[in-house]
């Protein structure tokens, strides 16, 4: 007999989730969904590494920024949708797996973007992910009550922008780059327009846990880079000392980045729709910086083993700039409002000092010292206690 909460087709009615649901955590499906992004992030970081080492800095950073937007935006949209409407029935699972297939297609096309500025495969994979998301929003629109107009606006807005993305397949040269900038803005405006009057519910603890899990994926890429330094040291005895030192320092900095990210109570950073937009959108720079940090470590390995055309100072900047962006971004969206005056001086100051490190004879070692000092400050000064408030619409 069909369960009273399930239709004859074995579907669970998709209703808004309770934003105050106790014990809400990431589901196994969400964790499975994140796995395919490990592939996409790894490929993007690898291609950035090669572009920077070959001294194609502007083209490499531009390609990375565009590709990473597709990765981040697809992940973020599913994450905010899932916090509001996840049902975990067979149709929801199939549509999620369809999105995962789009991520794999996108990952397969990243190399072409860096090599030839050919976005064909990336756009196709991205549109596959977004079409599946349209289906999810349309399904959610049937039983959402006051949120119905928001869900329909999401579906319509995403559909329109996907048509725009497909037009880039007929473009070439700088026109494609201009179109990307315009269409990215259109994507970013969809949540703002959709949630203007009617909001979707979100669970602050669940959504910030999801962001934290994705951060761990990105920091894992840095740990892989640390291991690569040791592997390279085994094969290059002349650079054994510097490579082992780089591996150790990478571990220290990665651990510090983890500590800094998870120090504040992130759920207090998304109290209103405006703050959720800031939290979600600024994470593009946080996530992209974490991915670029692993690429920078690989560039440093190339510098030590004399396999790059970059100067030592330029190679150091490929590491310190991502670290500084990561630290400053987290301070702005999560630490600043949960910290005392000392922390709010030390954290951004530390990020600034990291930027100056390449100009000093032992740059990366001092970066690790500065990051350790930031962590020590956070240990001595715990987060300022703030009471939880209600939730509203999501990004």
Automatic annotation (TrEMBL):
Pfam families per the UniProt record, alphabetical: LtrA
Keyword annotations of the record: Membrane, Transmembrane, Transmembrane helix
Q: Where is this region: Disordered?
A: 1-23
InterPro entries, per the entry: Low_temperature_requirement_A
The residue ranges crossing the membrane are 31-52, 64-83, 90-113, 119-138, 159-190, 210-231, 243-261, 281-301, 313-334, 359-380
Q: What is this protein called?
A: Low temperature requirement protein LtrA
